[in-house]
Design brief:
seven-stranded mixed β-sheet; 15% strand; alpha/beta; binds iron/sulfur cluster; 296 residues; TIM Barrel; globular; three-stranded mixed β-sheet
């Protein structure tokens, strides 16, 4: 059972809007994340090796959000709210608590735009509210000329292979079902894209799998793709580097030495790999005529 906690603030103003995710604000209604992705950047001793066990529900989040958005709207501080940056808004427990659904109702009321980032098909439940936000949200002045939508929806994929999904993101909706949800979202005519973060070296960044990813998302008619490679941190038992290396040892023993070699002293792939990766992504975006940013 998740812990129930009360918070003083739930809407976080970012220092600077990130050009990839366009976040003026972030909103995390849950703390920790039962999707349990091994590569997740929130990993570390704070939450433990099984993120589901440290899951908390911010039970007073809606009341606080209502107050915080009221104050921001009064000062005309409209901006895109990213839901979520450090958990998924559509975890299994969202079916019971409906915090994301209630938050969207408050967001409709205050007319803020949103960017939903998820690995779940539960988002389909909230298409009705998301349509309302899409039509009525007030964009920040500097985005009005560049973006004419109040809702952006990014599905996050590190692979399209269900077997690898079960290994590396064991609690999330399977990639095949996630893809079905993505296709439904596109059919609803939302501004929809894919965050391919991270693509897994030698597993989902092979030439074959990259073409599968790009051709699949092209066929889905997404508006953009946001690819990035893997970063892994820490050597403690709950850290992403330790957990990923254990999983590689178990499921991809032939890759163990390569991963050890690349990540033994650092948190990212070496410069030559990153250079080649970035070049490849530009080429693939060109080949498949896919945008590599939300605003272009
Ligand atoms: S869904 Fe996102 S926040 Fe949750 S474990 Fe995976 S990467 Fe982390």
């Amino acid at each position: 059972m998740p812990r129930e906690i009360e918070v003083k603030s739930v809407l976080n103003k970012t220092k600077k809007r990130d050009s990839w995710f366009l976040d003026d604000y972030t909103l995390n209604l849950y703390s920790s994340c039962s999707f349990n992705c091994l590569y997740c950047y929130i990993r570390g001793s704070k939450y433990g090796a099984n993120l589901e066990k440290s899951l908390s529900v911010k039970t007073n989040a809606i009341e606080i959000l209502d107050r915080q958005l009221f104050n921001r709207a009064k000062k005309n501080q409209y901006g895109i709210i990213v839901i979520s940056s450090a958990t998924d808004p559509y975890l299994q427990i969202e079916k019971k608590y409906e915090l994301t659904r209630e938050a969207l109702k408050v967001i409709v009321k205050h007319k803020f735009p949103v960017h939903i980032i998820t690995k779940s098909d539960l988002i389909e439940r909230d298409f009705d509210l998301l349509h309302q936000i899409d039509e009525t949200a007030i964009l920040p002045p500097d985005l009005k000329q560049k973006l004419d939508r109040g809702v952006i929806i990014s599905f996050s994929f590190s692979t399209l292979n269900d077997k690898d999904g079960k290994i590396f993101e064991p609690g999330a909706t399977l990639p095949s079902n996630r893809l079905k949800a993505l296709n439904k979202t596109v059919k609803e005519k939302f501004l929809t894209g894919v965050s391919m973060m991270p693509l897994l070296p030698f597993i989902s960044d092979t030439t074959e799998h990259l073409h599968l990813l790009f051709s699949t998302f092209k066929a889905s008619k997404v508006n953009y793709v946001l690819p990035a490679t893997l970063t892994l941190y820490g050597n403690g038992p709950a850290d992403s580097k330790t957990l990923m290396l254990n999983a590689i040892r178990k499921s991809y023993p032939e890759l163990e030495n390569r991963y050890l070699n690349y990540f033994k002293n650092g948190y990212e792939m070496p410069g030559f790999y990153q250079k080649a990766f970035n070049k490849k992504m530009v080429e693939l975006c060109k080949e498949y005529q896919l945008n590599n940013s939300i605003i272009h």
